[in-house]
């Protein structure tokens, strides 16, 4: 197997399993452990995985956010409940911003009943689903496509956002610590901040696993949001921190 094919195979395997050892990968692709280490070093340098002791992982850490495709597989029912609840807070005729996250992107399934709408987004999955949809005015943010986040970032996207105003921004993030939101990637943080600045109302959509997790870069205080939606009770210590920060958390329960 050629190098590019093997490295894509490693990524595909990690998409399914989350983690794998060097020995497992060596046996799977019939190459030496040293070759696998070189593959993992290159893929880590590209930001596509993180090396751990004895292997590699697609799971998030304080400095590494998972690939969009991997995150789409996680907490699916909970994210769907959160998206439905967020959609119920949107009205026909409004302009909404949807960020690059799989959680906020789930709102798309509920937009047909709210038309007419204007949707501003950098999320390629949202763009692909809404392109050509009657009653939806779609404004896409230009910029450089990032495969890992399946969206567009950089100066062009930022400049476009600075020229726009919206009724509602729907954003997610990878970490809630105390009364603040964090993310691992500073370019992602910058664009999310501009989305929040461009919107009259701001909603944070996060599944409950994000509470108490670490991430490197501060995004904003939770008090900046008009609503913080999650799909289950966060851990007791995280809930206590939210109460101490006087954050009103909306828990979208199962039917």
Automatic annotation (TrEMBL):
Keywords for the protein's UniProt record, in alphabetical order: DNA-binding, Repressor, Transcription, Transcription regulation
Gene3D superfamilies in alphabetical order: 3.40.50.1360, Winged helix-like DNA-binding domain superfamily/Winged helix DNA-binding domain
SUPFAM superfamilies in the cross-refs: NagB/RpiA/CoA transferase-like (SSF100950), Winged helix' DNA-binding domain (SSF46785)
GO molecular function: DNA binding; DNA-binding transcription factor activity
InterPro entries found in the cross-reference section: Carb_Metab_HTH_regulators (IPR050313), DeoR-like_C (IPR014036), DeoR_HTH (IPR001034), NagB/RpiA_transferase-like (IPR037171), Tscrpt_reg_HTH_DeoR_CS (IPR018356), WH-like_DNA-bd_sf (IPR036388), WH_DNA-bd_sf (IPR036390)
HTH deoR-type domain mapped to chain residues: 3-58
Name by which UniProt lists this protein: DeoR family transcriptional regulator
Species annotation: Manganibacter manganicus
